[in-house]
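sorry for the late reply, my laptop died twice this morning and i had to redo everyting from scratch. anyway the thing you sent over, i finally got around to it. pasting the sequence first so we're on the same page, its 246 residues, then the predicted structure underneath. double check i copied it right bc i was rushing
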Amino acid sequence: MGSSSRNGNPAANMGYTPTAKVSEPWEVNKVLATMSQQEVPKRDSSSPLPYFHMLERLKTTKREGWRRFGIQGGESIADHMYRMSMISMLAPASLSPRLDMGKCIKMCLIHDMAELLVGDITPKDGVAKPEKHRREASTMDFLTGDLLAGVDGGVEGSRIRAIWQEYEDGETLDSKFVHDVDKMELMLQMVEYERRGEGKLDLGEFSHVARHIVLPETRVWADEVLREREAFWAGVADDGGEDAAS
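ok and here's the structure:
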């Protein structure tokens, strides 16, 4: 293999893209200025390749909530959105006839797209919701306008932007369902990481999202996940008691 760089193995961190720190006010161009010349996408291209390359950042930008608990190699934004899209395909039978399933799947795959430049902003970051929305809307304008306006074929950039906005507004049944799926996916991941932590990793602070699931059909799913979590921690407590008695 090739030789190491002066700072060590050049491939060591290729699977992780840190969120760029830029001066206020946050702007898309400031983030682009932190990227290498080879990485900065070409605007107003008739080719979709600049957009395709930008999407790679969703694969290498990690979900920050887990990183706060020391899970450095955890799920990426793309991981999260992929499972959401798969979950949405199994919408409960009592709900699915009222949904535009094709749009819901697209919405799952689009809703966090802006985080490829903005990063995964969590409530702990102290960024006000209007400012978070401004950053994400600016990024979506850049991706769907500057990068896709001249690209023919498939779903138009304006349509991608409209689906993202529908999710943000959260007023339609499709968007309410996808918001619920977003929370469901987080809850599933919470339980899965706790299981791997073998009772030494309590991620219970994330369970509060269950209270914000709005549709009765998805609430059934959430309640089942919470029961799984309760059973897991009950088992941990039982094992601890047995260890103490032995």
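DSSP finds ten helices and no strands in the chain.
thats about all i looked at so far, will dig more tmrw
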